[in-house]
Amino acid sequence: MKSHILIPVFTLAAINISLAQNTISKPVYVYVVGKEYNEATKHNTIKYWKNEEAVTVTDGAYNAEPTAIFVTDNNDVYVSGYETRGKTNIAQYWKNSRRIALSDATQNAKANSIFVSGNNVYVSGTINNEPVLWKNNIPQKLPLNGIKKISISSVIVSGSDVYVFGSGNNGEKDILLYWKNGTLTQITDSASAYAQSAFISGNDIYIAGFREIVTIQNGETMSKRNMAAYWKNGIVHPLSDSLDAIALSIYVSGNDVYITGVASDVEKNFFSALYWKNGTLVPVSRSEDAGFNSIYVAGNDVYMAGGMHPEFNDRAMYWKNGQAVPLSDGSHNAVAIAITVK
Predict the structure, then answer these.
(1) What share of the chain is helix, strand, coil (3-state, %, to 5)?
(2) pTM of the model
(3) CA 273 from centre of chain
(4) Which residues 6+ apart lie within 8 Å of 335 measured at CB?
(5) pLDDT digits over 248-298, tens only?
(6) Sheet with 109-117, side-by-side order of all strands
(7) Virtual torsion, Cα 139, 341, 199, 166, nearest 10 deg
């Protein structure tokens, strides 16, 4: 006689519900920070968008420039940037739209990047054109070792190490720089080089930016153009041979290197957004008269933020897997500066 095992119907239903719950995708939140022109005050205001819903950060009383966005696991939104008051730039950041000043009117300062690790808030920038790292609002000057004309692009915390990236002039040409826990490393190139973004993956350090290519004949400079490039552990990888282009943002996911940038033709007053994956250009919809300022990769999805110039005002946009998503309606000039996904 055969024995039969009976499974109650409610048990099967419970199993099916459990399987369905496991297949439900986690909500994705896309955060984009940018700026929009305020016609009433004649100043740029800072905004960020969470899944296309706008949050106003500044009121337009002063001209404001956002530089980066960071969102913590508990959904606190940090935006770095600066406001111009008179002829002075005031470095600051905003936590959930609440302003935290890092400098005052006696200093000309900019906050260029922000990273939050645990309870510590790191902001990199400059005070009176000298490199500074603020940790929990306390400034620490970074050594120059004779380098001048400093620009700062990024701050990244990797484990217990804090990195600040930028560029400067060594007296002969512009070079790439980074500080690891306050110690300066210089990356020299055969041409002048400029850092725009950085990323750390494991033990590898990536910097995106551009090289200045100068053509000289009979001792005279005939032409100059920018060559988009990235550096991995100090080794240059050119991205644009013939294009006049710069790389603006970099993200590394596994073995893949994603980079965004822009190409321009000054004579034709034309620019075009660019996106490379592992050094190969990838076509993107609505990339003409556009620029990609930032890139972020989440799983299999690639997000890019920037702006597009249609017939009238610039529009803030982001692109998901190459498809454009408008953030502003075009009634005022606007552009997206940075993007992150949670």
Answers:
(1) 5, 65, 30
(2) 0.90
(3) 15
(4) 34, 35, 291, 293, 306, 307, 314, 316
(5) 999 999 999 999 999 986 555 567 899 999 999 998 866 677 889 999 999
(6) 109-117, 120-127, 130-135, 138-141
(7) -40
